[in-house]
């Protein structure tokens, strides 16, 4: 009689095989509500992570909010991973190559340190600034041409520090409160504003790099100009004769030299870091 019953319902065997692994029983009907033990043995679903987060694997994860180009990504990432590894993760999310990323968390993110070492906590905001390769190709050629023209013009002229317009500022001598310089060394930007320098009118000026906002603040006694770094067309500099451990530097705010904002007595160890921060490292590839 049981054999005759199975013959009348040939779909029973196929239906049982379609249950998830570990959900089958020894016998009886596989219909819903009849196998509570089978339901309890099902594997729990894996916890989902927004935008392709990593599996735990026993490692401690931290929840981050990555913000790039008005886009926000919720990411879980290993707390013991380095800044360089986080850049690779950002690349997978945005398509932005690591070399073209400026990643900020309380300043420029160090690539060699782990997120734990720089005290990243749950809910931390990671700001990313940078352009994709297509964006760079669209604007790089005209910018490179403009920079080459500027360099060609500079080569034709006498050294900047000998020109009359700069001589009147430089002849005042080195400011007493200018920051110390270290010749032959390249350093990251300090965590405090660069201060004690002169502007073109001979007034004191300070430079503050607001990396989280991607802005350069140029402060004088009268006011503070807040400039988006993307609006600065170029940065030029030249060592000061007789004081080669300091530079005179100009930020090009418009299409011509007339838009240069000059700053005098910039410590030489910060010159490359200023250019990299304002223009982006990709400008020098």
From TrEMBL:
<dbReference type="InterPro" id="IPR029071">
    <property type="entry name" value="Ubiquitin-like_domsf"/>
</dbReference>
<feature type="region of interest" description="Disordered">
    <location>
        <begin position="1"/>
        <end position="57"/>
    </location>
</feature>
<dbReference type="Pfam" id="PF25343">
    <property type="entry name" value="PH_UBFD1_C"/>
</dbReference>
<dbReference type="InterPro" id="IPR019954">
    <property type="entry name" value="Ubiquitin_CS"/>
</dbReference>
<dbReference type="GO" id="GO:0003723">
    <property type="term" value="F:RNA binding"/>
</dbReference>
<dbReference type="GO" id="GO:0045296">
    <property type="term" value="F:cadherin binding"/>
</dbReference>
<dbReference type="InterPro" id="IPR039120">
    <property type="entry name" value="UBFD1"/>
</dbReference>
<dbReference type="InterPro" id="IPR000626">
    <property type="entry name" value="Ubiquitin-like_dom"/>
</dbReference>
<protein>
    <submittedName>
        <fullName>Ubiquitin family domain containing 1</fullName>
    </submittedName>
</protein>
<dbReference type="Pfam" id="PF00240">
    <property type="entry name" value="ubiquitin"/>
</dbReference>
<dbReference type="InterPro" id="IPR057455">
    <property type="entry name" value="UBFD1_C"/>
</dbReference>
<feature type="domain" description="Ubiquitin-like">
    <location>
        <begin position="62"/>
        <end position="129"/>
    </location>
</feature>
